[in-house]
Amino acid sequence: MSGPHEEGPPIPFGTRAWQPQAGDRVIDVGRAGRSGSICGFCAKETATMYFCVKEFEIVHPQLTSVGVLSGDRFYACGPCGELFDAGDIAGLKRRYALVQGHAPDSAAIALLVGARTHREGPPVVVAPGTDPEEGHR
């Protein structure tokens, strides 16, 4: 999972394609009560685009009873979208730290790397005043 823009020690989390099993219970926390979409990379700015991904789960050798699913879209503001489109994970980590005032944790970094690994296609622009989740799923 290394690339030209990554830096720092390896993260303890990995990702894998999600294979639903009988009895799996999924709780969607991504849009609970929000109007509009917030950037999933900096968690601050309004999203202007999204990237489709093949759903994946975050895996950790010591966490076997809880799975964290990605969803099939990652929303991005303009600056984060440009960084993600370029595959610049280190740039996304720096932007997150600048916007939030602290570095992202290792699970958040695993989501960034997983989104890059499982990405499907070019960014999709979100028209102002529209809800791209309307009618989705």
Structural account:
The chain is of the alpha+beta class and 137 residues long. The chain is built from 3 helices and 6 strands, in the order βββββαααβ. The chain has helices at 78-85, 89-100, 106-117, and strands spanning 14-17, 49-52, 56-60, 63-69, 73-76, 124-125. The strands form 2 sheets. A 3-stranded antiparallel sheet has the order 1-3-4, with helices on one face. 29% of the residues are buried. Mean pLDDT is 76; it is low at 1-11 and 27-35.
| Relative strand content | 15-25%
Strand numbers in spatial order across the main sheet: 1-3-4
Number of DSSP strands?
A: 6
Largest sheet, in brief, is: 3 strands, antiparallel
Net shape? globular
The count of helical stretches stands at 3
User: What would you call the structural class?
Assistant: alpha+beta
Distance between the termini: 30 Å
Q: Report the order of strands and helices.
A: EEEEEHHHE
Which features does this protein show?
19% strand; 6 strands; 137 residues; 3 helices; alpha+beta; 3-stranded antiparallel β-sheet
Write the topology of this structure:
Blueprint: E1 14-17, E2 49-52, E3 56-60, E4 63-69, E5 73-76, H1 78-85, H2 89-100, H3 106-117, E6 124-125
Antiparallel strand pairs: 1-3, 2-5, 2-6, 3-4
